[in-house]
Request: fold
Amino acid sequence: MGDFWSDAEAIIHESCIKVPYSWQAGETASYFLTQLRDEGKIWGKKCPCCKKVLVPPRKSCPFCFVATDQWTEVSDEGVVESFTVVRRDTIIQPKKAPFAYALIRLDGADTGLVHVLGEVEPEAVREGMRVKAVLADDRKGSLLDIAHFKPVGS
Amino acid sequence: MDRVAIVGIGQTKHAACRKEVSYAELVYEAVTLALKDAGIGISEIDNIVTTSNDFWDGRTISCMATGDVSGGYDKNISCVEGDGTFGAFYGLTRILSGSYGTTLVTAYSKGSESVSSLITNAAFDPIYMRCLGLDMVSACALQARRYLSRYGISEEDCALVSVKNHGNALDNPNAQLGMKLTVKDVMNSRMIASPLKLYDISPISDGACAIVLAREDRARKITDKPVWVKGVSFCADAYLLGDRDLSECRALEKAAGAAYKMAGIRNLKKEIDLAEIYDAFSYQELLWTEGLGFCEKGEGGKLIADGATAKDGDIPVNPSGGLLGAHPVIAAGLIRIAEAALQIRGDAGAMQIKKDVRNALAHGVNGVCGQSHCVWILGQN
Ligand SMILES: [Zn+2]
Reply:
């Protein structure tokens, strides 16, 4: 760096990229999301090869590279396999900190679903805790149609 | 198969904000240093692989904008989107194809120019997962908890990684965050996403790295200190976090196993003298040391507590300070290759470990929670 730099003004261009996208969910995710929105049901899809029930459902099994072929309804209850209590806010998080994200294994599913926890003090969250989906009042066909998972019995 | 060596190494100073250079100028800085290190001009570079990410750069086909500053004018230049270790892998295979005698590999990012939580949130699938607002930190916090709980590893064990690597970074003239810390300092640092605290999390840096790879005949002409590529492999796990057991790293185990086999490594402890690995978070160094086979599963905490990964330990890990010392995303893995190679040459300055470094391991990661791993074994001969 030359000496000139110490006196030079650093020009910084402030910018923001905002591009509209229309992500097409495809038939598998569309079924899952419409069933969640309209019926409040959570569906997985089973792989004919490894027999795993994938939640959220995929058209093909990531492990076996074959088409999944059997829709299977799973429970809206499950177990917290891991969690984190987020202490800082970002503009993309669906809740104000502090709140917990959890990796939840729904009864009947062979994969974990990441979601947010609610109706629970962050300090009270534990692994192994049983939780139940709470549906959002205003459902739009997204995973946030589940407002959050709350401890079973609360 | 042809033998290939690293014959030139360059990296910038990594800092929270390098506002005196644009990102292209940052790349130019690293490339110039790598060519100077090799003692060659750009005319001796047969082809170029750049490594970049459009989201971090905020532009489409960002690699096209770093072609000129990588010396790409009038040359065959291609790009990898991902970590620099994967870019270097592509550069290596281009030499092995027989079409090129040398490859220049570059990687960079200017994390200071954007918002890391927004960029890393965009790594999540937009149909199902992105709306949850996860980013790299909150997702890795889920992995950390799962790993710590499964094996009874303590947050203090993780803090030891932070103490070690921030301390090692004090010896690294290019590092951003050299600090003398205690376990207590780490434990008392601000909780960001439990169990991850501020000092468990690597910074986001501005920085670039470049290396020159050369086929044996060209390498011998360029340098009398070639660093040989002895083994390299990469492997990917499933995309969605819930599809994986986050307390394991099977993709790393597989990549490492293949790299060891290719390098003819039979006894890790005796044959690998040092490792530079992708410690984006303190717990990851412990988990990755398990995946690399430096210890049994669940023993990562014991490995560091016993001092094995210290600079004077049996298997020093990240004597450069690792990503905790500086983390230019994308470049971070290529920097691991650079630091491992410098140790083999004996050119690591204050970072140089005491014992002779015959073989060193370098490791890079792509994706969230270590979806994909790339392992390099480098050696003196
Ligand atoms: Zn399957």
About this structure: The mean pLDDT of chain B is 97.
